[in-house]
Write a structure and sequence with these properties.
Number of domains: 1
Largest sheet: 7 strands, mixed
Strand order of the largest sheet: 7-6-5-3-2-1-15
Strand content: 15-25%
CATH superfamily: Ribonuclease Z/Hydroxyacylglutathione hydrolase-like
Number of helices: 8
Number of strands: 15
Order of helices and strands: HEEEHEHEHHEHEEEEEEEHEHE
Structural class: alpha/beta
Helix content: 25-40%
Radius of gyration: 20 Å
CATH topology: Metallo-beta-lactamase, Chain A
CATH architecture: 4-Layer Sandwich
CATH class: Alpha Beta
Amino acid sequence: MKNIKIKLLSLALILFISSSQALAKIEITWFGTTTFNISDGKTAIFFDPFVTRPGLWSIATFKSEKSNIFHVKRWLKKIDQENIKAIFVSHTHYDHAFDLVNFHKETGAMVYGSHSAKNILLGGKVDKKYFTHSKVNKTFKIGNFKITVLNGEHPSHFLGMTFWNGKIEAPLPEDSALYKYKQGEVYNYYIEHPEMNIFFHPSGVPVLKKKDLENKKARVVIQGIAKRESSEGLLSKIIRPLAPKYVIPAHHDYFFQSLEDGFDPMPSVDPEEFRKTLLKQYKGVIVPQLIYGKRFIIEK
């Protein structure tokens, strides 16, 4: 009888371990531009909240726009919003931070970003206790995720000029013209997790030095490709040193149309050239084309 009990306990333990291993996974969900949710099933971290997508006319006419709570609620339902504990902002142009206030209000998550991000929150009447400044080289522990802030740089929009440069110096009202979402500080994020590491590099500029990436490897690189100087530059300076299995292109979609309308590439970004260059020069890499709001499971 004693031996039977021992065998049953051993079997139960094996089943428990097997079940735990089977459940261990990382899910990545894309919502266009550099808007991503990364979840391990218990804790989720969100990047660059932007699902209300004002049209090009709003920019051209300097029209004031406000985050649409209907869109925020609709797209949050696609993911485990109850697990979102942190929202990270890479910089504060509107296509990275326009829905920041509503995402915070819907999730209660702490916000990490520049002081410009703080002024977006304050303009939306969010208490400053929900904000933490993302200082370069600082590391934050959130669930089983460990996120390290690295320096970033925004690519120029036209002839060496970056539109809406500078900082948001005062609380920004929710109903504001899009050009008032100044750039602020720019960050990259290195994400460590027991399952795998992920590098969130939303900019097309490979500003990081060799020493910045020393001893860093990533199973996944999320790579912004808008306004990139060259695909080869991103490959040699960011992707190859990190040796990822997956490279997820980002910021290559036409973000002046609604997410509900589906994916269309942004003119001049040429995501297919990036994909072909990557596959030709870096054998074995997987370059998935994510679908808005559909969870993508990363194999360990």
